[in-house]
Design goal:
Pfam families: CAP. There is one protein chain. By secondary structure, the protein is α+β, with helices and mostly antiparallel strands. The chain is about 40% helix and about 20% strand. It has two domains: about 130 residues, CAP (Pathogenesis-related Protein p14a); about 120 residues, Pathogenesis-related Protein p14a, CATH 3.40.33.10. The protein has ten helices and nine strands. α6 packs across α9. The longest helix has 21 residues. The relative contact order is 0.15.
Length: about 300
Amino acid sequence: MSRPNPSRPALVLLLVIAGCGGLPRPIPRLLGPQSPPRPSPVPADEPEAADTLRRDLLDHHNRIRGEHDLPPLTLDPKLSAAARSQALDMIELGEIRHEGADGSTPADRVRRQGYPYTNVGENVAAGQETADEVMDGWMDSPGHRKNILGDFEQMGASRLEADDGRPYWCVVFATPLPQLDPAGAATDLVTLINARRSEDSLPPMEADDALMAVARDHARAMAEAGSLDPAGPSVIEAVNEAGIGYRRLSSAVSSGPPRPPEVLDTLSDDPGRLRDLLGPFSRVGVGYATDDGGLPYWSVVFLDPPPR
């Protein structure tokens, strides 16, 4: 992107990035000698003034969302830190953009702040002096408007000035990943699995305590390793070690779905997993755990016991 004319306000948008198991990785970017001159950023904004600005922008967003019967957003300091990081980078590079000086994406910057999310969006702009002006510009742009009226729960904001006085704006939108009670999440998924089986007139599966323990331990192992294929015993090995007999056994794992309904959708959308979901199994175990960044891991074990 060429450097914008400092005399003209400018806008750039990023449409919603859906949360998933894999997060975007930074793309290395080298800045050669032909890079445009970079104005030096002003010193850190005063906390009181920054807080007033963030609340002013929050009020603007919520007034507009209220006019469209949408729930209000709340401010999150981690999202404001991500927004400030990008405002500083835009000042450093002398242009409005979503790619950070280090090649980072909005999702990368939110993740760096330790904010686990289901979706992320970002609006940026430069040149507008007031919140009224920047909001008018964003609402006149279909993409920015979509973010303002988007399916988000929280936002963070920053407005910084380059040493030539040009303002740079960044608003980051996100919805946090829910932090579920592991036992409750497992029970809720079993309930949903059996509701799905009842639609096909199939008998419910029993939540087997021993299988629940195997699935729980496997989910924890995946979360600790940050991998769907952690070191240690496999599900089959863990079932055998626990002395659980079976005639048929199958398992499914997933990372990213935030709640039991999304896990059920993931199972239902995969033909192989759907066969297990509706298969000749009478017992089930479910485990749920999150990694240090809040990313959920799920383990589901289906079992048909041996004949008595």
